[in-house]
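Internal tracking record. Fields below are filled automatically when a chain is submitted to the structure queue. Please do not edit lines marked as system-generated. If the sequence contains nonstandard residues, flag them in the REMARKS field before resubmitting.
Queue: standard
Priority: normal
Entity type: single polypeptide chain
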Amino acid sequence: MTQVTTRGSGGLRTDAMPRPTREQRVARGKAARAEVPRSSHAEFKPAARRPDPVTLLAAQAASRVPELLPIRYGRMAVSPFTFFRGAALPMANDLAGTPRTGLTVQACGDAHLANFGLFASPERNLVFDINDFDETLPGPWEWDVKRLAASLEIAGRDNDFSSKERRAIVLAATSAYRRTMREFADRTALEVWYAHANASTIEARFGPELSGALRRNMSRSFVKARTKDNLGALGRFAGTDGGRPAIIGDPPLIVPLRDLVGEGMHPAEVTEQLRGMLESYRTSLEPERRELLDRYWLVDFARKVVGVGSVGTRCYMALLLGDDEHDPLFLQAKEACPSVLEEYAGASEYDNCGQRVVVGQRLMQAVGDIFLGWVQVQGFDGQTRDFYLRQLRDWKGSAELSAMVPKGMRAYGELCGWTLARAHARSGDRVAIAAYLGSGPAFDEAVGDFAALYADQNERDHSALVEAIYSGRVKAESGL
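SYSTEM-GENERATED OUTPUT FOLLOWS
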């Protein structure tokens, strides 16, 4: 007899394993409360043999581009918040020692508030969602919630908000997560899958709560995001070289292919290798999207430095043209390494780290980039590496966190909490998680306590990096 396997709420099931009833799923969530009380999430105490955070970062940097590492450390050293953005690994190590409910979702792995933002849906609507999945992996849902909460506390400190204001922001975001999960627990699986936040629903939900100035800032953010498209990228990153369209260098942040190839490597040969890479990547796309990609041809290629935590990983931008120079397509190929969660939550089921990122992103995002795909290639250094590809800019927008006032950050935190709950509800047992969270604020208050404690630890870790830079242990470059 053939046994059929399918993925269901709570994990993998077969025809020999009946789907649990709603009552059983509720009971599972409530049973988790007895094993892991919601109040226990307030706990954070550094392990007795906690690894030095700078040592952890150095180990992570071993596989990265050496000449770019000073940029990474320079960006992380700017403030406790920029340090936090690049310190997903130290926090994963810390979260491994915190209470776990045993309820698993497709976790982001790096769900801080700067990793949420605006982008275009295939239907050309502006939507808000998580936008960074480098660390995605099945894991504890509470780890993502705690990283989001800690990021709000840390960002609030960077903005000189009072402790009362910061507490209100963190509680609002955590409460939004809890209430949203309970709302989705009563919806059908299809309703959860289709749920998303677009510009109009965001304005309707949060506009009335914001002052006139904040509403205007929100509207300007939507308008600005729509200008960040392929034509805008052409104007920003490209020009001409010998009469041909080309990416303009801005070293070390943007280094064109012609300046990257080493001795003994002919640019034409490397270009053919890149065409082969795009052909291999093409096979990870759906057939109709391959047809669209085939209408473009590769014009130029460059290495690009992105983000804070990603600096040092190999990231490239490819300029392709369709009918003419007014029909550009910019793709970003970003190196995918093992998730920081793998040591603590288990190895990925995918051999290709790029595929891990793409599958996780498709599970968590309500809508996705039509050119999202993966590939494995041999790099310029002869090493085999995994990459995932997507459009470089497609109506992408992010919040100006440093300019936020408390009321604005509170609304933004609520939106992030809603978005994270929706993402988790797509892959995890939303009924069991909702039953665990309950209708009261016990979990919210506990996470609020955790966020404050972890922000203290993050400040100590940031100071350790700054000290390592001053002592010469770590080389850093600022202003890049």
